[in-house]
Amino acid sequence: MRVVVATGNAGKVREIAEALGGLGWQLEGLGGLPLPEETGTTYEENAALKACAAAVTRGLPALADDSGLEVAALNGQPGVYSARFGNRASDTERNLYLLEKLRGAADRRARFVSVVILAYPDGHLETYRGELTGTLLEGPRGENGFGYDPLFVPDGETRTLAEMTVAEKRAISHRGRALAALIEAHRNGPPAREEAGGE
Ligand code: ITT
Q: Which of 93, 126, 149, 168 is deepest in the core (most CB within 10 A)?
């Protein structure tokens, strides 16, 4: 099946393509299509906005990820606003901003959340979610991945996500888990749809 990957984030494209390799889907890029403004207040709402816009415009199933980092000492911020944290323009600047916010904080626990939505042109949605808990370092380590990866050490690991390969990150990550649930659901073709609003 042809599926549009509705993201402008090159790191997500890499991870989604690697994870879904075994499904035999033909993954297509946005082809210049702009993504809608992320006006939602939840990952689910924003993922649906992105996936639906692409599915309707392209007339193909479209997959979107909305994700974020929830920091315990910041009461769960930046969460859905992770891509614009502190109005900083780049991953490096956002990481520095986060480090500044956490300077001296003893509680460095955080978790990543990913909601992956596969939307069909008729408006049907499949939703998958994954989470990853860990701690934030006091300085970046590693060159791989994207976003906050250089600061994040998953529970039970010694390396940051930026010190792992795409496959190693996928095996444990929030996005990897959400995509594994999608793969499982599609093991025997598209999953049966539940009756909407049925008693
Ligand atoms: P699209 O909307 O085009 O997909 P985006 O980067 O704007 O790309 P989001 O709105 O979902 O995506 O923002 C998620 C942000 O959360 C992302 O920009 C990173 O800063 C952070 N993030 C999410 N998943 C991450 C991961 O696996 N590793 C590091 N940072 C991540």
A: 149
